[in-house]
Amino acid sequence: MRIGIFSDVHANIEAMSAVADAFKSERIDKYVCIGDVVGYGASPNECCDLIRKLASFTILGNHDAAVAGRMDYSYYYDAARQALDLHARQLSSENMAWLKNLPYEVREGDVTFCHGSPINLEEFEYIFSVEQATRCLDIWDDLGSVTFIGHSHLCKSFALTREEVFEVVATKFVIRPEHRYIISVGSVGQPRDYDNRASYTIYDTDERTFEFKRVAYDIDSAAQKIFQAELERNFGNRLFLGV
User: Strand (E) positions, the chain?
Assistant: First the structure.
């Protein structure tokens, strides 16, 4: 089975549409979204509508949780909080109900999907460094062979033995049975690794291979929608830079 995995769409329908189109040539059997459908961007309903149709399941992200009233986000900085408030007002009743019922985690066989660290699911902790991934050694026996996460907006992979963690720098690699893997799949709608193309990934369960992919999209259209909305202009500016 070939699974198309993506995350952190952040209400960017231009990027999400480009990713959906790119997946069409990849022989995908199933799609999984690892959360943060909303927040930052100008098209929350359009992204919810598309992902609800496309994905077999979607994981709850922190922005999804905030908009759905499932977490306190009063400590978020002003612009992010205002975007979440706006999206909460804009979402259709169907999309709001969908967000309210998204799971924190889904496990399928030896594969786990969650938005942040698998240690404290409701805390949405980041994993984008070896030091952060090393904390997962404490739950080695509870980890599946692969744990797919989002949240950091970075494309990062870590291989864990029982004693140590090292970063996997390849864009395509084999999942080896003697390791556990934590893979951050990057962001569709707001990449932060200085590559402004939308990120998406593919996991082949038969070949045991994983691959990072990127696709260009109409950044100007996505940014102009942000500029014309009640949103912080920097949410649009940063799309051009990939930060």
Answer: 2-6, 30-33, 57-58, 105-108, 111-114, 146-149, 155-160, 165-168, 172-174, 180-185, 198-204, 209-215
Reported confidence tier of residue 191, pLDDT bands at 50, 70, 90: very high
Torsional sign, CA 54, 59, 61, 64: positive
Q: Which residues contact 143 (CB under 8 A, 6 or more apart)?
A: 112, 118, 136, 160, 180, 182
**What is the distance between the alpha carbons of residues 210 and 66, in angstroms, rounded to a whole number?**
31
Query: Which SS3 state, helix, strand or coil, does residue 171 take?
Result: coil
Query: Residue 137 and residue 14: Cα distance in Å, rounded?
Result: 38
Q: Which residues contact 72 (CB under 8 A, 6 or more apart)?
A: none
Q: How far apart are CA 116 and CA 150, in angstroms?
A: 6
The domains located in the chain, with CATH, are 2-241 (3.60.21.10)
What tokens does 204 get? 């082949």
pLDDT tens digits for 139-175? 999 999 999 999 999 999 999 999 999 999 999 999 9
Q: Which residue has the tokens 């952060």?
A: 132
> Quick one: tokens of 18?
């480009």
Residue 223's contacts (CB-CB under 8 Å, 6 or more residues apart) are 236, 237, 239, 240
The separation between CA 60 and the C-alpha centre of its own chain, rounded to angstroms, equals: 10
